[in-house]
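Quick question about two entries, pasted in order.
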Amino acid sequence: MQTVTELVFRLSPPEGFFDETVIRNLLADRSEAARKVLAHRAVAVGEILRLKPGLFLLAPEFRKTHPHPFVIAAILHSPSHVSLESALAHHGLIPEAVFQVSSVTYSRSRTFKTPVGIFSFVRVPAANPKAGVQALKIDGRSWAFVATPLRAIADLIYARKDVSWANDGLAFLTESMRIEREDLEKMAWEGLNEVCESLRDRRTTDYLRGLNREFGK
């Protein structure tokens, strides 16, 4: 076991996440260059996983728990919430895509290709970023901010600049996204005004209100 791995393993950080500050504190007697070399060696042999510059995760055999991909997404880029196809899949509206976690942020768009998966973050400006976003318990022990079906659709429409209610209507969701009409009929609409007021994008709000006219009660 590499020096860095052994020291972090003894520390037992929550879910196995740690950053450069932890390495700096654990190896305070080493130079910055020496710390980088030791970290690089641990990454090279696969004992620790580099998620992005300065952020690491112990390999599975060195941690007791395995963080849910939604938890990893939140740590990679904050503030953000899981949305788009990932939220729709989580709510059972579309088939689950296991190869990528899609999130929304009001910061800049980013994509991280990591040893544990691909994590994309799409910028969606919002006056109230938490409108239509819930804190959900996702695997019996972890919590993550996840868009409601309504907010996930709103984020999706905003991100798909070529989609509008006038041109595409319901077919975008039922045909392109393969969402069942019956599932759309069951969708909750209580947060519609809050989401529309937060996003303030005419094309997106027109789509949501068109959808509401189709299914709202």
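Here is the second entry:
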Amino acid sequence: MIGRLTGTLAERAIDGSIVLDVNGVGYELFVPLGTLGKLGSGVTTTHVREDALVLYGFATSEDRAAFRTLLGVSSIGPKLALAVLSHLSARELAGAIAREDRTAFQGIPGVGKKIVERLALELKDKLGSLTGGSLSASSAGSVPAPIATPRFTGPLASVAGVLVSMGFRPSEAERAVTAIAPHADGKDTGALIREALAALG
């Protein structure tokens, strides 16, 4: 089993797949969309299907542990587990479960009311160790909520929307667009998107 890959991010797609160049060998991995802007190296886990050997990559060992824990929930496969982690980090997921915050799962593709109830039931008391075992229902309330993407105007608004549609968290999109805003005048949306992705990387 491949436990860690360190290399250069060679390719990435909006479906969550990337190619990591490790000494000239390209490894295809699927990653939570929210990590696309920051995954140059990281930890991996291997999932064996009947017809394929699939690698999944994560920016932190906590996210990898959360992925494995999610796979232990009834009817949760890798695709759905990645969808959850594309919207919530391991700490945010643990906080939502500890607080019994069902609203944290709104908008996650494939995660309806029944899935949320199953996650709340089966993940209870299983995620505290991902954050050092100190995340209780009371302390989980201090986990920051996702920051809404500000209402940029013109091309900057388009860039922010594209980043969120690619799977970046609103707070990441805000940070990137804020970083490129001072030098945005006269540039088209395509150029600004490339600059924003570079800022996230």
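Reply: The first helix runs from residue 61 to 71. The mean pLDDT is 76. Hope that helps.
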